[in-house]
Write a structure and sequence with these properties.
- With 243 residues, the chain is an alpha/beta fold.
- The chain has seven helices and 15 strands.
- The strands form four sheets. The chain has a five-stranded parallel beta sheet with strand order 2-1-3-4-5, with helices on both faces. Strands 10-9-8-12-11 form a five-stranded antiparallel beta sheet.
Amino acid sequence: MSRKIKAIIVDDERYSREELKHLLSEFPFVEVIGEAESGESALITCMQQQPDVVFLDIEMPKMNGLEVAKNLKELKHMPFIVFTTAYPNFAVEAFRYEAVDYLLKPFDEEQLVETMKRLQKLLFEPGEGLLVARSSRLALELESEIHYIDPHAILYISRDDRVSRIYTKDQQFESKLALKDLEERLKSYPFFRIHKSYLVNLSYVQKLIPWFNGAYLLELLNSEEKLSVSRNYVKALRNRLEL
């Protein structure tokens, strides 16, 4: 494929840049041609590299993303802008700068797919037939590092004390993300909520054992722990397992 979308990532946090760069690497038609950690360096990089799109953080010291966007409008070759931020309250002001999209951190992979589809329509002629790739990794920020986990390797996820614990065969990870957020990120994979505190990968289900009061216990491959299945989820779980 000869034509690619040239992108620049602007964020004062290195780990945020690395996470987004990794997610964008899953799209074969995107090439990240530069990075910038400040508004000032972003403008210089854009003038030098002339990208098609800038993924632009809003909350940055000295010159914030909205000020950068205002200056980008003055360029002869103005790139499309996708704002990236942890704060939803900037959305109305951001779209005054004709932003293509407004991505909230932590990045949602499904939303990123929609953003890339929108950029394709804006940058490519109809009929070029570019396909959107989906990221195959779950990105988690753990102790100031970004870990990328293969969803297929996850046995189950539990939630207690405001911490989500992600179990694979050999490792355990902790995340501050709520179980419902992880469930949303993993909705394209065979995960199922069996309890308010458990999300399991149905690929590893080995045995469903009657317990008491209509509840069940669930045994998973590669795990010694038996997970309780709330009676409210039993019928739906059995239907899924019998498909």
